[in-house]
Amino acid sequence: MFSEVRGLGLLIGCVLNADYAGQAKQISQEAVKAGVMVLIAGGNVVRFAPALNVSEEEVTTGLDRFAAACEHFVSRGSS
């Protein structure tokens, strides 16, 4: 699903691979349904920008929820 991760520390962007190009908005909508707020940059990058005082537990929970949202997106045919 992703071809590259850019950035440092907590401020990162995940670049969608060719199969999912242009679908960052739809993926971000799935993430919101899973309880994770992400940003988009163009149609091909999903960005994370958590509060700088976020705990490790909150990061883990957020990434688990984002992974579930991505799995749901892929399983329903990414339409």
TrEMBL record:
Q: Could you list this entry's UniProt keywords, alphabetically sorted.
A: Aminotransferase, Transferase
Q: Name one Pfam family in it.
A: Aminotran_3
**Gene3D superfamilies cross-referenced by the UniProt entry:** Aspartate Aminotransferase, domain 1
Query: What biological processes does GO assign it?
Result: L-arginine catabolic process
Alphabetically, the GO molecular function entries are: identical protein binding; pyridoxal phosphate binding; succinylornithine transaminase activity
- Cofactor(s), by name: pyridoxal 5'-phosphate
Work out whether the entry's keyword set contains Transferase.
yes
Keyword Manganese carried by entry = no
Give, as one word, the top-level EC class.
Answer: transferase
E.C. designation(s): 2.6.1.81
Report the PANTHER family cross-referenced here: AMINOTRANSFERASE CLASS III, SUCCINYLORNITHINE TRANSAMINASE
Q: What is this protein called?
A: Succinylornithine transaminase
Q: Which organism is it from?
A: Escherichia coli
Q: Which gene encodes it?
A: astC_2
